[in-house]
Write a structure and sequence with these properties.
By secondary structure, the protein is of the alpha/beta class. Helices cover 27% and strands 26% of the residues. It starts with a strand and ends with a helix. The mean pLDDT is 91.
Length: 326
């Protein structure tokens, strides 16, 4: 029986990071379809909250306590335990982790310590007798590739928003795990944590996104984008062109070199929809686009395309939304 591991990332509040709920759901599905054993692994100074939450997604969770994870980089603290566990008699056939900054660090460190190969940014995963087959988007989303491990075993990082998190019908069990001799790995002390003042809801988790592109024309043009986002109960996003122009922070960028999002509604204002941007939002539930150019690429995949001036259309939409809320 194949063994599949899910490495869970604790969030800032000690709970489970959203990307880990998505990865856990995807891997549980693989396990159920292929009769594989699925195990979650949580490493934290206090793993109880994240471990209990992860147990609602997978049948078995190993909770590992490491005091160093409280004031050191989580990825390094976690990797030394995971690497040692992965070398035991119950070594996994595949290790899955989210393709966020911490997940990528864990994958690289565990690979260096164990010699396991890494396949990155999976957009889909299937399983066969020879191990996992990983689908990846390359060349800005123009091509999809399928890859596997020559040795049949390895580490997979999964892109955000490629799976919809769903709890299991039956909760799993949490087991306390002790690693007597963690692998030797320098750990980095965290000297300061900075939270952005007045930060908006993360676009990774937003149900509604109103995004502006080059057609917005400048930073002042994003005032309308922000008003529409507020009226719709959503958050503001942007194309790379708007970010590169300095109109909006990089944290709002959506696309190949930005965030991958999956809102229920994606309203694009003045965005052409080039392939680099499409990669980041193509899995949105409903895509509505406003653009003067009827030949803009986004017209080909938007659910509703409105040809017109984004300021005229946007202001009219805002008036209707405000009238309804009044």
């Amino acid at each position: 029986m194949a063994r599949l591991w899910v490495i869970a990332e604790p969030g800032p509040d000690g709970g489970l990071a959203r990307i880990s709920t998505e990865v856990a759901t995807l891997v549980r599905g693989l396990g159920e379809a292929n009769k594989a054993e699925v195990t979650g692994v949580v490493v934290a100074a206090d793993p109880s909250t994240a471990a209990n939450e992860l147990a609602s997604y997978v049948p078995r969770v190993l909770a590992i306590t490491d005091a160093a994870a409280a004031d050191h980089a989580w990825s390094a603290a976690a990797a030394r335990h995971i690497a040692r566990l992965a070398e035991g008699d119950a070594a996994p056939d595949a290790i899955f982790v989210g393709a966020g900054p911490d997940g990528r660090d864990v994958a690289g460190a565990v690979s260096a310590l164990t010699g396991l190969g890494v396949l990155t940014n999976a957009t889909a995963v299937s399983w066969s007798d020879t191990g996992p087959t990983i689908e990846m988007s390359v060349f800005g989303g123009k091509l999809l590739t399928s890859s596997g491990f020559t040795a049949g075993r390895g580490i997979v990082t999964v892109r955000p928003n490629v799976a919809t998190a769903a709890v299991a019908a039956k909760p799993g069990a949490v087991e306390t795990q002790t690693v007597d001799q963690p692998a030797e790995l320098p750990i980095v002390k965290v000297v300061e944590r900075v939270a952005e003042a007045g930060a908006a809801v993360s676009i990774d988790e937003a149900r509604v996104i109103v995004a502006g592109g080059r057609g917005v024309g400048g930073a002042e043009g994003f005032e309308l984008v922000e008003k529409l986002a507020d009226a719709l109960g959503g958050v503001v996003g942007a194309s790379r062109a708007a970010v590169d122009s300095g109109w909006i922070p990089y944290s709002r960028q959506i696309g190949q070199t930005g965030k991958i999002v999956k809102p229920e509604l994606y309203l694009a204002l003045g965005i052409s929809g080039a392939i680099q941007h499409k990669v980041g939002m193509r899995t949105s539930g409903t895509i509505v686009a406003v653009n003067r150019d009827a030949d803009a690429p986004i017209a080909e995949f938007a659910d509703l395309f409105v040809q017109g001036d984004l300021f005229e259309v946007g202001k009219a939409l805002l008036e209707r939304l405000n009238a309804r809320s009044g």
